[in-house]
Amino acid sequence: MNQFQISVVAHLIAEPVRSVMLIMLSGGETFSAGALAEAAGVTAQTASFHLAKLREGGLVSVESAGRYRYFRLAGPHIAHLLESLASVGPVTSTWLTTPSPAAKDLRFARCCYDHLAGQTGVAITQGMLNRHLIMKCDNSQYSLTEAGFRWFEEQGIELAERGLGKTETIRGCLDWTERQYHLAGPLGAQMLHVFIEKKWVVRQADSRALKVTATGWEAFEKHFGMGYQKGNITLEQDDVVFLERNRPATIIPLNNLPIKSSKR
Fold first, then answer.
1. Is 41 left (phi over 0), alpha (psi -120 to 50) or beta?
2. Which of 159, 187, 214, 243 has CB atoms 3.0–4.6 Å from 119's, for a disulfide?
3. Distance CA 157, CA 125 (A)
4. Phi and psi at residue 98, in whole multiples of 5°?
5. CA dihedral defined by 172, 249, 121, 136, rounded to 10 degrees?
6. pLDDT tens digits, 81-130
7. What's the rounded Cα separation, in Å, for the pair 165 and 163?
8. Domains of the chain
9. In the Cβ-directed half-sphere of 108, how many Cα atoms lie within 13 Å?
10. How many CB atoms are located within 10 Å of the residue 29 CB?
């Protein structure tokens, strides 16, 4: 572990303008310098300065299209780094109770570089555990079951063709808003690709937020036992998970469940 390198990267990320740019790029999309400048509230010249620093530090890459240059994160490892940093420290009450619709949408379902995150991503992971599609190896690792392997094949994801076997380990990513794990890595990316292709989720313009469609909720109920009632996600399996937009995700065992009227 290189102490100097850690200091350099930490300094690059800590600068407020650069952190805004990195967060905007963490959905996996590409943006022009002008779009990033507007998001950060700085001039084009200032944005170019910061983007050059990020590129020199290996945090972003750039591609040219005619006269224009488009920036993106240097890879999924940078998105994972940002999510890991965001998960350090407590979730503040300000974030949990924010009246901002955009912030609520982002917490509910978002793209974490190439996989699904937020309350929806956490619930799907729990649903897959309940349906025995995956098994937990430790806090941050999962493995596919025979049923899970068949499920991926049924969704048109040929795991063998991608060099992924029945005993494939799936990396978990600690969700920075929920403090629980959602699926990441190649299989997590394939799942999000399928969800978007089937129009179970759709991207929201100029945001990392994702919207679950009516077709998506039907599919999630069928495949993962997920429901959606009055702004809450529920899992009707061994446990019921209430995921409300103004409080952290919690798992409530059936024998401790309050009266159903508590579903707000």
1. left
2. 243
3. 18
4. -60, 135
5. 40
6. 887 787 676 655 555 555 567 778 888 999 887 899 999 999 999 999 99
7. 7
8. 3-74 (1.10.10.10), 101-262 (no CATH)
9. 23
10. 18
